[in-house]
Amino acid sequence: MAKQYETVIGLEVHVELATKTKIFCSCSTEFGGAPNSHTCPVCTGMPGSLPVLNKQVVEYAIAVGLATNCKITQYCKFDRKNYFYPDNAQNYQISQLYLPICRDGKIEIETSTGTKSIGIHEIHMEEDAGKLIHDEWENCSLVDYNRSGVPLIEIVSEPDMRSAEEVIAYLEKLRLIVQYLEASDCKLQEGSMRVDVNLSVREAGAEEYGTRTEMKNLNSFKAISRAIEGERARQIELIEEGKQVIQETRRWDDNKEQSFAMRSKEDAQDYRYFPEPDLVPIEISDEWLERIRANQPELRTEKLKRYKEEYDIPEYDAQIITGSKKLADLFEKTSAICQKPKKVSNWLMVETMRLLKENDMEPEDISFAPENLAKLIELAESGTINSTVAKEVFEEIFRNNIDPNQYVEEKGLKTVNDEGELRSTIEKIIAENPQSVEDYKNGKEKAIGFLVGQTMKAMKGKANPGLVNQILKELL
């Protein structure tokens, strides 16, 4: 019988915080910008420059810690992690080793096998490094220090995950918590959320962990899933052949669907950590902690519960809407204006989702105002415009955030409810289509659909469909 193997996975998740300025200086953290344009003597590691801690970084770290059920270290400090690398300007990184700001947390995840608690070992604050750009053409490497000194929190899980499904569930839950706290936008493709996967395999039932490898360069949930499956298979194959798994850092190549060894994994002592001499320890008072706790927003789990009680929308809709802070805010604000949560939910679930998919956009990229969606719902509900026109107007709102009232007025899109005008158009359509009239009289119900279509076409889609049907039946 073939041996059964268990995969053991722990994650290190780096999250770039949404502060306006860097962790130890006042340079901008904005993504993009010309190389080295968001820099100063502090974040480029000039001799004699001194770091000053950004208070907002501490507040975001505490907020994430509270939301992930961590204990907050009220007396914590920074340490220096020494290593030489061209994108690391000072030759050390300011991080936290001995007294991280948060520890011993946990979050609940839902998977196909039920609910499971994943432990969080610690969360610490640190600065990001710069970025190396390898120029194949000139055969050289260039360094951009714009990202150097951007504030990060590193969320280190316990090795509690056993499958790619559990990993993705944990990451999605974590990403939502951080987005709801507005501590980061967590865009994997822009690197504001980066995941390193520590993975080992062992025989099912074994107590001891196997040798682990760490995989980097994972910039989508799909890539993470593929990397886990690939690395699990690679390690099992080595064990089956009687070979050793080497503890090392590997780079995942998503195009080739395989990982490559980068370097053997160092231990903490190799970094010669010591307390950061240029920064005073941080003392988090009870009052400060309570103030942050009191300002914590409603997270997704509480939102779902409230939506069930407050709004009459299906469970599935509530799950999708609360799955993005942007959608949840849009839903709540629009519902507050027009008092029609069910209609708001329909517009978000059907048309908004369709346009997001067609334009390859994320809910975070939505730019229209809740006021405009509310106005559109009023126009459609009052019968001022019909459903075909409403969809057309919504596309304009989605693209250009237009005022629907103004747009409908300018383009003359109001529904025609003038019976006289409709009647004369329909009489003309009936006269032009004797075959369809004949079919209808011979019991072919579908024939009326063709006549309704022709009438709508003649009225440029602006007729009231109910009234068209009524007049047609009467005339036929």
From TrEMBL:
Example GO BP: glutaminyl-tRNAGln biosynthesis via transamidation
Domain Asn/Gln amidotransferase: 329-476
PANTHER family in alphabetical order: GLUTAMYL-TRNA GLN AMIDOTRANSFERASE SUBUNIT B MITOCHONDRIAL AND PROKARYOTIC PET112-RELATED, GLUTAMYL-TRNA(GLN) AMIDOTRANSFERASE SUBUNIT B, MITOCHONDRIAL
Name under which the protein is recorded: Aspartyl/glutamyl-tRNA(Asn/Gln) amidotransferase subunit B
HAMAP family reported for this sequence: GatB
Reaction catalyzed: L-glutamyl-tRNA(Gln) + L-glutamine + ATP + H2O = L-glutaminyl-tRNA(Gln) + L-glutamate + ADP + phosphate + H(+); L-aspartyl-tRNA(Asn) + L-glutamine + ATP + H2O = L-asparaginyl-tRNA(Asn) + L-glutamate + ADP + phosphate + 2 H(+)
Enzyme class: ligase
Gene Ontology terms, MF aspect: asparaginyl-tRNA synthase (glutamine-hydrolyzing) activity; ATP binding; glutaminyl-tRNA synthase (glutamine-hydrolyzing) activity; transferase activity
Keywords, alphabetical: ATP-binding, Ligase, Nucleotide-binding, Protein biosynthesis, Transferase
Family: Belongs to the GatB/GatE family. GatB subfamily.
Subunit structure: Heterotrimer of A, B and C subunits.
Function: Allows the formation of correctly charged Asn-tRNA(Asn) or Gln-tRNA(Gln) through the transamidation of misacylated Asp-tRNA(Asn) or Glu-tRNA(Gln) in organisms which lack either or both of asparaginyl-tRNA or glutaminyl-tRNA synthetases. The reaction takes place in the presence of glutamine and ATP through an activated phospho-Asp-tRNA(Asn) or phospho-Glu-tRNA(Gln).
Assigned EC number: 6.3.5.-
InterPro entries in the cross-refs: Asn/Gln-tRNA_amidoTrfase_suB/E (IPR017959), Asn/Gln-tRNA_Trfase_suB/E_cat (IPR006075), Asn/Gln_amidotransferase (IPR018027), Asn/Gln_tRNA_amidoTrase-B-like (IPR003789), GatB (IPR004413), GatB_C_1 (IPR042114), GatB_Yqey_C_2 (IPR023168), Gln-tRNA_amidoTrfase_suB_CS (IPR017958)
Pfam families: GatB_N (PF02934), GatB_Yqey (PF02637)
Organism encoding this protein: Anaerosacchariphilus polymeriproducens
